[in-house]
Design goal:
With 289 residues, the chain is α+β, with helices and mostly antiparallel strands. 27% of the residues lie in helices and 24% in strands. The chain has one domain. The protein has seven helices and 17 strands. The strands form six sheets. Strands 1, 8, 12, 13, 16 and 17 form a six-stranded antiparallel β-sheet that branches. A three-stranded antiparallel β-sheet has the order 4-5-9. The protein has a two-stranded antiparallel sheet with strand order 2-3. The chain starts with a strand and ends with a helix.
Length: 289
């Protein structure tokens, strides 16, 4: 398969979502004190700066889930879903850390279990060695471009809301928000495309299971608000005219929900057959509860 596209969206399902930008957001100053009253001017600026909220990632003023966040979310899930078999692991720990921050480690371990204790050696680096693991081949690593690439998921109609978490103000996307984007793949066989879908929580339909994403994903709830839960939804799948057809499917374009559902089921099943003794499906939301 060559230069093909999965067009999809994430929607926050009964959940608030925060993807940090590393910047603060403050309301513009509309009424400056008299320019000659220096002390009042300084006090006014300091007050407004102290009211700054942690901003949501943006491009062109619109909220986005950056391509790097989408890629990291899917890749890390697959890295942790694989387990070593006969002394071999399909994935190094390039993206998913065995040792996250102390504050989140117990939650991380509760979700993923003993796989965090596996010794998978050094992370792949094609500038140092002449071979890489399966997931580094698919997603890329040092010295190697991956076969799967991502674009930013843009929340064109998302209206951010302000919440306070542990005394820190931040802008969040409210429940029901939709972020749309595309994922491109090149020269994947069926089981590899199936892996991508499984990493998105997709197995039985165009709507995946709830997944964890964002800064607050391990919190579960902030006050009465559910946070950090998203769902990937596939809207279409396009193959280039030079691609061979997916087994048992005779089209280059798939947009009907019923056909897409059948296609996703077939591709996911292909991956599960290929990696039957190595791949486990972990429901991170249920395990964290």
């Amino acid at each position: 398969m060559t230069v093909s596209i999965v067009s999809c969206k994430t929607s926050t399902i009964q959940s608030y979502l925060h993807i940090g930008s590393g910047q603060e957001f403050s309301e513009p100053i509309k009424d400056f004190p008299n320019e000659y009253d220096f002390n009042k001017l300084v006090d006014s600026l300091a007050q407004r700066l102290s009211l700054g909220a942690n901003d949501f990632a943006r491009v062109g003023g619109m909220p986005v889930i950056p391509a790097s966040s989408v890629k990291g979310n899917i890749r890390a899930r697959l890295e942790l879903s694989f387990k070593a078999s006969n002394g071999r692991a399909r994935a190094c720990f390039t993206r998913a850390s065995r040792y996250p921050s102390v504050l989140s480690y117990w939650r991380h371990k509760k979700i993923w279990g003993d796989v965090l204790r596996e010794d998978r050696g050094s992370a792949c680096d094609l500038t140092q060695i002449n071979r890489v693991c399966l997931l580094c081949d698919l997603f890329g690593t040092a010295g190697l471009s991956g076969l799967i690439s991502f674009e930013d998921f843009v929340g064109k109609d998302v209206k951010l809301e302000e919440v306070k978490v542990d005394g820190i103000r931040m802008l969040v996307a409210p429940p029901g928000s939709e972020f749309k984007g595309q994922i491109y793949f090149n020269n994947l066989v069926e089981e590899e495309l199936g892996l991508l879908l499984l990493g998105m929580g997709l197995k039985d339909s165009v709507r995946g299971r709830p997944l964890l994403l964002g800064r607050l994903k391990y919190r579960g709830q902030v006050g009465s608000r559910l946070v950090g839960r998203v769902m990937y939804v596939v809207k279409s799948l396009q193959l280039s005219k030079y691609s061979r057809n997916i087994a048992d499917f005779n089209s280059k374009s798939y947009e009907s929900e019923s056909v897409l559902t059948h296609l996703i089921q077939s591709l996911a099943a292909s991956a599960l057959r290929k990696f039957a003794t190595e791949l486990r499906l972990v429901d991170e939301v249920v395990n964290l509860a």
